[in-house]
Amino acid sequence: MCEQMGVEPDPKRMPLDASEFPDEVQVAFFIYDRLSEVWEGMSGTYMGKNWLEAYKLLELYDFDNKKELLFFMQLYDSLVIKARLEEGKRKSDAEKRKSQGVGKTYTHNVRG
Fold first, then answer.
1. Any idea what DSSP says for residue 87?
2. What pTM was estimated for this model as a whole?
3. How open is the CA angle 58-59-63, to the nearest 5 degrees?
4. What is the pLDDT of residues 3-56, one digit of tens each?
5. CA distances from 12 to 1, 4, 18, 33 (A)
6. Which of 2, 25, 85, 111 has a CB 3.0–4.6 Å from the CB of 9, allowing a cystine?
7. Is the pLDDT of residue 106 over 80?
8. How many CB atoms lie within 10 A of CB 58?
9. Average of pLDDT values for 81-101?
10. What distance in Å separates the CA atoms of residue 54 and residue 34, rounded to the nearest whole number?
11. Of 20, 25, 23, 31, nearest to 62 (Cα)?
């Protein structure tokens, strides 16, 4: 993409790859992805992962550093929850503006 735009790639702006993290964090991502998600029924708000499943998965895969893995998973979960709440708020605000007619332009054909 940078080549098409004629821009030099900036490593500071590139998203991180999972392989760039320590092994413990990579394992935490792996287990975290296998947890089911919990959504609030009426508003559709993302509540996070179902942590009851985490212990079973940690036992199943027989990891030694369960506390450390849980720490990284919960840290990541808090970031995901925050990002999804912000995304939901942006969508809600956009819907509110749309329903109030903000940003609509009207053209009138006036003949004299």
1. H
2. 0.65
3. 60
4. 777 778 777 777 778 788 888 888 888 899 999 988 888 877 778 888 888 888
5. 16, 19, 16, 26
6. 2
7. no
8. 19
9. 85
10. 9
11. 31
- Could you identify the residue written with the tokens 């503006």? 97
Say if 1 falls within a structural domain: no
**Could you tell me the two tokens for 9?**
């790639």
Say if residues 71 and 78 touch (Cβ distance below 8 Å): no
User: Which tokens in the block code for residue 104?
Assistant: 């609509």
Both tokens of residue 40? Answer: 């609030």
Q: Smallest Cα–Cα separation from 23: which of 81, 65, 52, 53?
A: 65
Examine the pLDDT at 94 and tell me if it is beyond 70. Answer: yes
How much is the pLDDT for 2? 67
Nearest-angstrom CA–CA distance, 2 and 6: 6
Residue 110 lies in a domain: no
Domain that holds residue 50: 19-94
Q: Is residue 31 assigned to a domain?
A: yes
Number of domains present in the structure of the chain = 1
Look at residue 37 and tell me if it is in a domain: yes
